[in-house]
Specification:
Blueprint: H1 2-11, E1 40-44, E2 50-52, H2 77-88, H3 92-99, E3 111-112, E4 125-127, H4 145-151, H5 154-171, E5 175-176, H6 201-216, E6 221-227, E7 251-253, H7 256-263, H8 265-272, E8 277-280, E9 284-285, E10 288-289, H9 294-304, E11 310-313, H10 322-327, H11 348-355, H12 361-377, E12 397-401, E13 406-410, H13 421-431, E14 434-438, E15 450-454, H14 495-506, E16 510-514, H15 520-529, E17 532-539, E18 547-548, E19 551-552, H16 564-574, E20 578-584, E21 599-604, H17 612-620, E22 657-659, H18 668-673, E23 691-700, H19 751-755, E24 794-804, E25 810-819, E26 829-838, E27 843-851, E28 857-859, E29 864-866, E30 872-877, E31 885-889
Parallel strand pairs: 4-5, 5-6, 6-8, 7-9, 7-22, 8-11, 15-16, 15-17, 17-20, 20-21
Antiparallel strand pairs: 1-2, 3-4, 9-10, 12-13, 14-21, 18-19, 23-24, 24-27, 25-26, 25-30, 28-29, 30-31
Bound molecules: 2-acetamido-2-deoxy-beta-D-glucopyranose (9 copies).
Catalytic activity: Hydrolysis of terminal, non-reducing beta-D-glucosyl residues with release of beta-D-glucose
Biased composition (Polar residues): 46-62
Pfam families: Fn3-like, Glyco_hydro_3, Glyco_hydro_3_C
Length: 896
């Protein structure tokens, strides 16, 4: 069994750049160009879409130093006091130990740093994934992020976060590698979009923050990922991928406005919610690798957004030692340069770099403080549960140091951590189902004379629910997409099983299931007899280290898999009451069946996790009135989206250039901008009841004017002493070393010998300012975790009335959009939403507080938010296209 897990995981080994070009030069440090500005040029490209001046091939990312030291801002004060106190007692070796993973498959979790046994600090277990605990058993598979987005429900997002956090904690995992807002969902084909929420910064930001709060309420550090611009799988890593050789990861090229108003936005919410850790991504941003890009880590994340936790590399996304340390990386995972190379950019090398003066002591102190602060902030140490599982085998007995074959004993205790999470998973699954079409077919009663169920997506995989490693195949119903963002199923309730059970429980109906997608004549025969035919079809995607049916992570197309359209056609040709249920990672094309009069209902059910069948039964049979809404736009064609994956390298073997020329006009923002009619718009979804919107009001508050933050930071704290005697740092005598393991010690009293680096550079190139530990000027947009706290001042409160005009209780997701009014602004963007449960005949009030941030644009010159003089339009309604209420705000710029 282990080899199956092991084999797929090994594929995840990102081919790394040759060590020779990894350390020097500090690639971005030479650039003196400013961050790409965002003056929108009026040029149009051949697709007639607006080209932003700041998204050009080969553009560079400017240096930004020094790396900001954490100061214990906001509610981090107590955690920082504790962290500084313990780090003050640490030796350099102990601090370095905290920063460096011990190597791939050398401990039991997917990543573990070094411990500090002398001070009772254990090695932290960092473990996938954003849907549960990966690589173990007796755990739950929660609904994917895209389903959480479809619920538009803050409470459910938080409850799911708490459920996942609970499972991590009780397996002994201290850092959950999730949730995800990168990818945000630039292109609908993006392989990992489903791990995140929605291609909208507000919906994503709110749910990201709730999920983080839920996870961290269980004493587990949430690691938000992936920072940033990681919008596709193709070419995310250098090497001989599945088809093309590239020598560098792609560069996401984007401008300052797009960065702030779209991609960075949800990170503000996550940081404000206290996110303890951030994972930097594989890709480059403006041609500088994310884990050593000083502009995005030092400036945006730490200085501007005041991130107080630690930055962890994605697995093998670290590309240099000194450069990444100076650029703001705090922890490297899994720690070794290539998996099990026994070498590290940090470990001994970081000890050397401090001793030879290339990395200032305060920077390593800051790394250690940030790591320990996050640990204390969530209460991980005070509620510590020892690791009781192993990621590399499900066998009870095995090696603790798996790759080294050392430490034989019980490594899997098979602790059941599921609690009662199945009920929550079922509830979220039902709440996330989006009813797209209903010609009176739904809800069903269970007393239908003859129910036919069709498609492999209704049934089980012949290999079992975990038969394909990391869910890397599309067999049976789609309960979990593929890649590292997955977990093993404890069971998977299929739709066919649940529907059959439902009919059985009601007594007399006939039930026939045809689960072969290509058995057209058998399907037609059953459909011809059926009073209701329910066809299940899906579309899958995942992480690019697994290719499924030629889809290298990213989807090749937006059509249903296994010829789903043909099966729907076959069934609906024989049955005038055909219901289509789609399990998919995102938008699919529906034009072949949407207008077919025999297709009487369509439900998009996303990728709902282990309770899939029960969740869909709840909706089909009306036990739950559907209230989910689309967290993305369904277009008529893939061209409608105006953005696509780069499938072929465009820069020879050097870094493919992914130019975000669409700026922030992705998904509905792009459809609106180019006046393209969607089939089903962002925010759309029906109910078994009906709702009416009325009475919009806007109340202005006395918020006052915006204050740019001024002043200076403290100077970099230096904690404890580093001696100059290299013999203090060599391996302890008689220490028994685990083979391949990464340690902080020196091999020799010679630094150069210890580094064992042919490119050891006694001259050294240090970016200007990188060693400066003096007090630094504060950025105007900074001031607290998340950014300038005045951005959350409430300027206006909008209310509207919503009445349930039908006969049954239902949930309505009310939405508020704002048009900021400028010629380059998004036509209207989501700024508020609430999922409201409304009894028949009842009227409730929908209330949205509009903050300063909600009404602001990013000014690339002042490097701050501001409110433009343009009139703001506020829209309230049921979707991005159904906005019956409208009001304007003329005086918002008075708050500047
Ligand atoms: C950066 O500058 C260093 C030192 O001047 C030089 O050796 C190196 O080639 C430059 N790198 C780039 C990418 O221009
Ligand atoms: C682009 O168009 C705007 C509004 O029409 C105009 O004010 C601006 O000068 C134009 N910019 C360029 C670079 O032509
Ligand atoms: C570093 O971490 C390893 C693994 O957890 C541990 O064995 C070693 O004692 C630690 N070294 C120091 C100096 O704390
Ligand atoms: C130090 O880093 C260099 C790459 O920069 C690598 O070649 C070398 O093996 C590392 N040394 C150790 C001891 O891991
Ligand atoms: C200092 O040590 C680091 C880590 O081994 C090495 O990469 C760097 O070249 C060294 N620099 C100097 C100036 O000795
Ligand atoms: C789209 O991709 C799926 C999965 O690889 C495949 O089954 C289907 O045939 C493709 N559709 C088209 C139109 O090529
Ligand atoms: C609809 O179903 C009926 C059978 O009930 C069939 O005769 C008819 O051809 C179907 N129409 C379409 C468009 O498939
Ligand atoms: C659907 O087909 C059934 C039986 O085949 C028939 O009784 C019914 O009238 C048809 N309904 C419509 C709307 O055509
Ligand atoms: C970007 O750089 C690559 C490699 O140097 C080169 O092949 C390509 O033409 C450049 N692209 C542009 C648009 O300058």
């Amino acid at each position: 069994m282990w080899y199956q897990l092991g084999a797929a995981l090994l594929l995840a080994a990102a081919p790394v750049r040759a060590a020779t070009d990894a350390l020097n030069p500090l690639d971005e440090a030479n650039s003196t160009a400013p961050w790409p500005s965002s003056v929108y040029s009026n040029a149009t490209d051949s697709d007639n879409s607006i080209v932003t001046a700041g998204s050009k091939s080969n553009q560079t990312s400017p240096p930004w130093y020094p790396s900001p030291w954490g100061e214990g801002m906001g509610d981090w004060k107590a955690a920082y006091t504790r962290a500084r106190s313990i780090v003050s007692q640490m030796t350099l070796l102990e601090k370095v130990n905290l920063t460096t993973g011990v190597g791939w498959e050398l401990e039991r979790c997917v990543g573990q740093n070094g411990a500090v046994p002398r001070l009772g600090i254990p090695s932290m277990c960092t473990q996938d994934s954003p849907v549960g605990v990966r690589d173990t058993d007796y755990n739950s598979v929660f609904p994917m992020g895209v389903n959480v987005a479809a619920t538009w429900d803050r409470g459910m997002a938080r409850a799911r976060g708490a459920g996942m956090g609970y499972e991590h904690k009780h397996k002994g995992s201290n850092v959950q590698l999730g949730p995800v807002v990168g990818p945000l969902g630039r292109a609908p084909e993006g392989g990992r979009n489903w791990e995140g929420f929605a291609p909208d910064p507000v919906l994503s930001g709110v749910l990201f923050a709730e999920t983080i709060s839920g996870i961290q309420s269980q004493n587990v550090i949430a690691c938000g990922k992936h920072f940033i611009g990681y919008e596709q799988e193709h070419f995310r890593s250098a090497g001989n991928g599945f088809l093309y050789q590239v020598n560098e990861s792609y560069s996401a090229n984007l401008d300052d406005v797009t960065m702030h108003e779209l991609y960075l936005w949800p990170w503000m919410d996550g940081i404000r919610a206290g996110m303890g850790s951030v994972m930097c991504s594989y890709n480059q941003i403006n041609n500088s690798y994310a884990c050593q890009n000083s502009y995005i880590l030092n400036k945006l994340l730490k200085a501007e957004l005041g991130f107080q936790g630690f930055v962890m590399s994605d697995w093998s996304a670290q590309m240099s030692g000194v450069a990444s340390a100076l650029a703001g990386l705090d922890m490297t995972m899994p720690g070794d340069i290539a998996f099990d190379s026994g070498t590290s950019y940090w470990g001994s090398n970081l000890t050397v770099a401090v001793l030879n003066g290339t990395v200032p002591q305060w920077r390593v102190d800051d790394m250690a403080v940030r790591i320990m602060a996050a640990w204390y902030y969530v209460g991980a140490g005070d509620n510590y549960v020892p690791i009781n599982f192993d990621s590399w085998t499900l066998d009870t007995y095995g090696y603790q140091h798996f790759y080294a074959n050392e430490g034989y004993g019980v490594i899997n205790e098979h602790v059941d951590v599921r609690n009662n999470h199945g009920a929550l998973i079922r509830e979220i699954g039902a709440a996330s189902a989006v009813l797209l079409k209903n010609e009176g077919a739904l809800p069903l009663t269970g007393k239908e004379k003859f129910t036919g169920v069709f498609g492999s997506d209704a049934g089980a995989s012949t290999y079992g629910p975990n038969g394909c490693s990391d869910r890397g195949c599309d067999m049976g119903t789609l309960g979990c997409a593929w890649g590292s963002g997955t977990a093993n199923f404890p069971y998977l309730i299929t739709p066919g099983f649940a529907i059959e059970n439902e009919i059985y429980n009601h007594g007399n109906g006939m039930f026939q299931g045809v689960y072969d997608d290509y058995a057209y004549s058998e399907a037609e025969s059953v459909a011809g007899q059926a009073s209701v035919a329910i066809v299940f079809a899906n579309s899958d995607s995942g992480e690019g280290y697994i290719s499924v049916d030629g889809n290298i992570g990213d989807r090749n197309n937006l059509t249903l898999w296994h010829d789903g359209d043909a099966l729907i056609k076959a069934v609906s040709s024989q049955c005038n009451n055909t219901i289509v249920v789609i399990h998919s990672v995102g938008a699919v094309l529906m034009d072949s069946f949407v207008d077919n009069p025999n297709v009487t209902a369509i439900i998009w059910a996303g990728v709902p996790g282990e309770e899939s069948g029960n969740s869909i039964v709840d909706v089909l049979y009306g036990k739950v009135n559907p209230g989910g809404k689309l967290p993305f736009t369904v277009g008529y064609s893939r061209q409608n989206y105006g953005v696509d994956i780069l499938y072929k390298p465009n820069s020879g073997e050097s870094a493919p250039q992914l130019d975000f020329t669409e700026g922030q006009f992705i998904d509905y923002r792009g459809f609106d901008k180019h006046d393209v009619a969607p089939l089903y718009e962002f925010g759309y979804g029906m109910s078994y009841t009906t709702f009416k919107y009325s009475d919009i009001t806007i109340t202005k508050h006395n918020a006052g004017k915006y204050t740019a933050t001024t002043g200076k930071t403290s100077k970099a704290p230096v904690l404890g002493q580093v001696t100059n005697d290299t013999s203090d740092y060599t391996f302890p005598d008689n220490m028994s070393r685990v083979p391949y393991y990464i340690y902080p010690y020196l091999n020799s009293t010679s630094l150069k010998t210890s580094a064992d680096d042919p490119h050891y550079d006694e001259e050294g190139f240090i970016p200007q300012g990188a060693h400066d530990g003096s007090a630094q000027p504060l950025l105007p947009s900074s001031g607290a975790p998340g950014g300038n706290p005045e951005l959350w001042d409430v300027l206006y409160t909008v209310t509207a009335k919503i009445t349930n005009t039908g006969k049954i209780a239902g949930d309505e997701v009310a939405q508020l959009y704002v048009g900021l009014g400028g010629p380059n602004d998004v036509v209207k963007q989501l700024r508020g939403f609430d999922r409201l449960s409304i009894a028949p005949g009842q009227t409730v009030t929908f209330t949205v507080d509009l903050t300063r941030r909600d009404l602001s644009n990013w000014n690339t010159v002042t490097q701050n938010w501001f409110i433009s003089d343009y009139e703001k339009t506020v829209y309230v309604g049921a979707s991005s296209k159904n906005l019956p209420l409208k009001e304007t705000i003329k005086d918002a710029s008075q708050f500047n």
